[in-house]
Specification:
Creatine Amidinohydrolase
C-alpha cells in the first residue's frame, strides 16, 4: 500500500482530506479521514482518540492559555488513549487573512509554545495519527474562533467517522 502519491483507492482503504474555504482572504479549514469498505477496530479506536483530543484542544483554547497548553491537551489525550507514539509534534496553527498559496499563519501549536491565546484568534486544530507499522492513518481537524471565554467551532461538519 502506497501511503502517499497517486493511485486508485482499494475496496478497503483510507483517504485523508483537508479542505479550506476563503471569504475576503480569511480562511477556515477542516480535515477528515474517510474510509472505503469497513472500518477496522484499530481505525475506530484511532478516530475516537482523535475526536477526544480535538475536544480537549478546544477546551484548552481560551484567552490566557498558550498555544503550548493546547498542544499539551492534544498530547495528553492521545497518550492516554495509547497512541502517543503515533501522534505528531504539532497539532495546528493560526489562520489569518493571508494570500494564496497558503492559509497557514504563525503561531503553530507545539510543545511549550509560549504565545498567549487571545480573543478573535482563528485557529485550525488537526489531530493526526500515523501508524506506519499497520499502514493506518487517521485525522480530524476543525477551525475555531477564540471568544472571550473559550472558543466557537467554525467547522459545520460533524466529526463522525465516514465509511463508504
Amino acid at each position: 500500500m502506497n501511503f502517499t502519491g497517486y493511485r486508485t483507492l482499494e475496496a478497503n482503504d483510507q483517504l485523508q482530506l483537508e479542505f479550506g474555504g476563503a471569504y475576503r482572504h480569511y480562511h477556515s479549514c477542516l480535515m477528515r479521514t474517510i474510509l472505503t469498505g469497513e472500518a477496522s477496530p484499530q481505525q475506530v479506536a484511532m478516530h475516537a482518540a482523535c475526536c477526544d483530543a480535538l475536544q480537549a484542544c478546544k477546551e484548552a483554547a481560551r484567552p490566557g492559555s498558550t498555544f503550548g497548553d493546547i498542544f499539551t491537551a492534544h498530547a495528553d489525550a492521545l497518550d492516554r488513549a495509547g497512541f502517543g507514539e503515533h501522534r505528531l509534534n504539532a497539532c495546528g496553527y493560526s489562520l489569518g487573512a493571508l494570500y494564496p498559496p497558503t492559509w497557514m499563519d504563525w503561531p503553530m501549536i507545539f510543545r511549550d509554545n509560549p504565545i498567549v491565546v487571545q480573543p478573535n484568534m482563528v485557529i485550525f486544530m488537526h489531530m493526526i495519527l500515523l501508524d506506519w507499522d499497520r499502514k493506518l492513518a487517521m485525522s480530524v481537524g476543525d477551525t475555531v474562533l477564540v471568544t472571550s471565554d473559550g472558543c466557537e467551532t467554525l467547522t459545520r461538519m460533524g466529526t463522525d467517522l465516514v465509511v463508504n
